[in-house]
Amino acid sequence: MEKRGGTPSPSPRSTEKSGKDLTRSGDANGGAGAGGNATPKGDKEKGVNVQVILRCRPLSDDETKGNTPVVISCNERRREVAATQVIANKQIDRTFAFDKVFGPSSKQKDLFEQSISPIVHEVLEGYNCTIFAYGQTGTGKTYTMEGGGTRKAKSGELPTDAGVIPRSVRQIFDILEAQCAEYSMKVTFLELYNEEITDLLAPDEPRFPVLPVPEDKNKKPIALMEDGKGGVFVRGLEEEVVYSAGEIYKILDKGSAKRRTAETLLNKQSSRSHSIFSITIHIKELTHESEEMIKIGKLNLVDLAGSENISRSGARDGRAREAGEINKSLLTLGRVINALVEHSGHVPYRDSKLTRLLRDSLGGKTKTCIIATISPSVYCLEETLSTLDYAHRAKNIRNKPEVNQKMMKSAVIKDLYSEIDRLKQEVFAAREKNGIYIPRERYLQEEAEKKAMTEKIEKLGVDLEARDKQLVELKELYDAQMLLSAELGEKLEKTQKDLEDTRHALHDLEEKYSEAKSTIKEKEFVIFNLQNSEKSLVDCAYNLRAELENAAADVSGLFSKIERKDKIEDGNRSLVQRFRSQLTQELDALHKTVSTSVMQQEDHLKEMEDDMQSFVSSKDEAAQGLKESIQNLKALHGSGITALDNLAGEIDMNSQTTFEKLNSQVQSHTSDLEKCFGVIALGADNLLNELQCSLSKQEERLAHFANKQREV
Ligand code: ADP
Ligand code: MG
Predict the structure, then answer these.
(1) The model's pTM
(2) Which of 611, 688, 129 is nearest to 370 (CA)?
(3) Hey, where are the domains in the chain?
(4) Starting at the edge strand that comes first in sequence, how are the strands of the sheet with 90-97 ordered?
(5) For the segment 369-391, what is each residue's pLDDT rounded down to a tens digit?
(6) What's the gap in Å between 143 CA and the centre of ligand 1?
(7) Sorted alphabetically, which keywords does the UniProt record give (predicted)?
């Protein structure tokens, strides 16, 4: 403040001085009525989700040297992070999706340009925006927010490892310079440790030596005040006006220096403390009526305490709180997020200073972004998973961003003048009287406040008495109630028993009900199936009927055919019978003919036998006659021979004459013989002819008989 008083602002844009109202957390619009709200309607009604960005740092040199296994893989394109866990030899991958994912090789510039730059634009539109860095210690929260250690780069350029804070400041200046706007930028930088606020930009020596000095000389405890309009502000917080982007490092160094001193004193305090860097911008605008208005935007950049504290102290919650409320703010932040995500009615903003300060950034009118930082190392996996869960949950918080109401420039100036006056009086009093001096006006005001307080105390005393009386009455009432409650207790027990029984019964009924339900379901299913089959059956029946009709026609045709066939068969039968009778008749006739013919044959054979016998006997007789004639012939022949012999002797006597007589006798005998032989030969010839004739006759007869037989 002295510095600011001593160096009157030369720059045309530095029209602002410090003002307590402007350090108010949340909105600076003071909740007054009309105008200046440029929020789109949709945003206002539905709200916008908190934007959650995930950043995974690369392995450190030590980790690389130690061959630390990497268990995190980032897919920037799909905005996903996968953590590989091995549980009981099984690999389990858990994947989380975020609004943006920046892998180990991502650059500070990329993160800023892709995710933070749009937020800075909104701040310049007049929104309040907050960016949180959340994560385990050593995962790069401070690296992301403030940057690596490099402070200097080529002329005017930011170093490549510059974080979100210097880049935001740089961008704000660049944009406003390009617009040739009239503006001013102020920053505050505070630390919250153990529910105590420290101003990281306060000058080292106490401003008012007469005031009691806190134990830690570098730190001045600062009160959080209600502004009476639902917000809070940090009273007496140092505000540094920034004139150029380059200055931001001076301020950061100043703050970090304070933090560093504290770190050595308080055992790695930075991992347990939160730091809030706030940038407030006032921009002059001209309305159509040429009225000068001031547009106000605010950017809070919050580097939270290491998240390992929350999980670890969560395990032994009670003791941690006893140990000095170290993590109260971080725990409360978690509870606030849970309450907002689960839409439970009460959101415990008031339970910690951090949530009081940033109330508007969580479920309020502020646009909020959370950068969750993780390490890729297997040794941090547990913390990493808890960070991923936490960040993923926070995605569901909805804010309803509203543009800050613009202020008339004249009103701002008036406010500032009265503030300057108040401060001047304080300075004057302090310097002149070398002790505590309170200006008359302030004195009167405080006296009046004191009087009001006394009155209030008196009133409270009276109230207390009344309360005491009430307490006695209540005690009596309490006793009566106790009796009643004992009675009721008994009743309750009985009722509970009954209830238990009823519950059992109900349980049984429920079981039966569910059984019945399932059976009904089954039945329904069966009925449905039956209906379907019925339908198909009906269809089949229709088809069958048609087919049956056809078949009936066929059958009647068949019947008529059968009738016809029967008739034919009857005809056939009578025919067969007739044929049979004829056949028997004919057979009888045949039999008769055969027997007659057999008889005839027998007759024939007899005749033939007779014929043959008569023939044989006739032949015998002929042969006997032939024999007799031959014997006669023989005797004749013998007598002839003896006559010849007698003649031969007479021949011998009579020689020639007798010879001649002999000759003539031999000749007559020979012709007689020839005549006899001719008769015999004729008789034999006739016999033979007769025999032949009767044989051929017999032959003919046999042939005829044989023919007849064949014919039969
Ligand atoms: P935190 O603030 O979360 O405790 P730091 O920001 O102090 O963590 O980071 C721890 C170390 O890791 C620092 O040395 C820092 O330079 C380094 N680091 C963190 N994030 C990155 C990153 N994205 N790229 C390179 N180095 C990083
Ligand atoms: Mg840090």
Answers:
(1) 0.56
(2) 129
(3) 48-204+221-407, 439-580
(4) 72-75, 80-87, 90-97
(5) 999 999 999 999 999 999 999 99
(6) 5
(7) ATP-binding, Coiled coil, Cytoplasm, Cytoskeleton, Microtubule, Motor protein, Nucleotide-binding
